[in-house]
Write a structure and sequence with these properties.
- This protein is of the alpha+beta class and 367 residues long.
- It is built from 16 helices and eight strands.
- The strands form two sheets. The protein has a five-stranded mixed sheet, with no helix packed on it.
- This is DNA alkylation repair protein.
């Protein structure tokens, strides 16, 4: 399991930061800074709280003058190798969020966010600026969308995602995402996969509140460019999992009646937490068709209710009478993102957005 990002904020990394600051600002009290950050509250803090504790204490031990403090941090950032990027350094843009929101600092803060995002990401730090000065900030995002650096272009999309994970929700864009689509339009054929993934994730966010708008956008965009086609497909993933017929049609997935499903069966009707559920089935095409195969697991939650999670199996093109057989294993191992509970669950086979069969099974506690 990869190391949690919050754990990379530790004594060693903070000591390195302090020494880098002291190298360009000799008056910096590096030992006091580190002690102030790693205080009695430190162990209980999660990622963003740790990041904020670092940026607040940078403000305490750097000059009170914001312009001077940013000048020092600029020199620190310049000390890292060109092209180096690490999300652990998000305390640099967070410093701008904490100390640089006054009107008199606008140009200085915009330049700092642009510079700092190339080392980490300013995706969280831009959001309070959008909330307070939406039109002005979105003009800035449009400028960044044409920047020569992929990290800056990504910021123009990632920073205005209506529902960015761990970020402040942009309620205005949840109500009306049209300003966001203006940014995405500029990036829909971006050559950088890093940028395209952000554009797709932004579209997926919008699809949760304005599915019709995303469907219209997908129809307008799809088929013109391979980069754009990838964005559209990835951006419509939630709608595809919901079996939205309009979206399925965009990608050429026929009605589920174009195939016959046989032999859908479980290897065992019970699975112990930590084990695997195995099932198999065969599909036969009644006519040539493009097929999207998925399955849904109806998990038992702690309160005894069910919650469905969809998993993709394959996307294939079958010729008339062509047959494909599948055997799948689904893990019930304990993971950080899901707790498993004993009880009766079900697995549902889904073809082109339509459920074609459901089987029940029991999840047993570890003996």
């Amino acid at each position: 399991m990869p190391e949690l990002l919050k754990n990379r904020y530790n004594y060693e990394s903070l000591q390195e930061l302090a020494l880098r600051v002291k190298a360009v600002y000799p008056s910096f009290r590096e030992e006091d800074f580190v002690k102030a950050v790693i205080n009695e509250t430190w162990e209980a803090l999660e990622l963003k709280a740790r990041m904020r504790q670092i940026s607040v204490n940078l403000g305490r031990y750097l000059p009170d003058d914001y312009k001077q403090a940013i000048g020092i941090l600029n020199k620190v950032v310049e000390g890292y190798p060109e092209g180096y990027n690490d999300f652990a350094f998000m305390y640099f843009p967070d410093f701008v969020e904490v100390y640089g929101q006054e009107e008199r600092y606008w140009d200085l803060s915009m330049a700092a966010l642009e510079r700092f995002t190339t080392l980490s990401s300013s995706e969280f730090a831009v959001r309070p600026f959008i909330i307070k000065h939406e039109a002005r900030m979105m003009r800035q995002m449009a400028v960044w969308a044409g920047h020569g650096n992929e990290h800056v272009r990504r910021l123009s999309s990632e920073g205005c995602r209506p529902q960015l994970p761990w970020g402040q929700a942009l309620t205005s864009f949840k109500k009306d995402p049209s300003p966001v689509l203006g940014i995405l339009e500029r990036l829909k054929a971006d050559p950088s996969p890093y940028v395209r993934k952000s554009v797709a994730n932004n579209l997926n966010d919008i699809s949760k509140t304005h599915p019709g708008l995303v469907i219209k956008t997908a129809k307008d965009w799809y088929g013109g460019n391979e980069y754009t086609d990838w964005i559209v497909k990835h951006g419509c993933r939630t709608l595809l999992k919901k079996g939205n017929r309009d979206v399925l049609d965009i990608f050429g997935f026929a009605d589920a009646g174009c195939v016959k499903v046989t032999g859908f069966a479980l290897e065992d009707e019970c699975v112990v937490i930590g084990g695997n559920l195995a099932f198999s089935f065969t599909v036969v095409a009644k006519k040539a068709a493009r097929i999207r195969l998925e399955y849904g697991i109806d998990y038992v939650k702690a309160n005894g209710t069910l919650s469905r999670k969809i998993f993709q199996i394959s996307e294939i093109t079958l010729q008339e009478n062509e047959k494909r057989s599948y055997t799948k294993k689904h893990s019930f191992a304990e993971v950080s993102t899901r707790n498993h509970y004993p009880g009766f669950h079900s697995v549902t086979l889904i073809v082109n957005g339509t459920a074609v069969g459901t089987l029940d099974f029991e999840v047993l506690p570890i003996a």
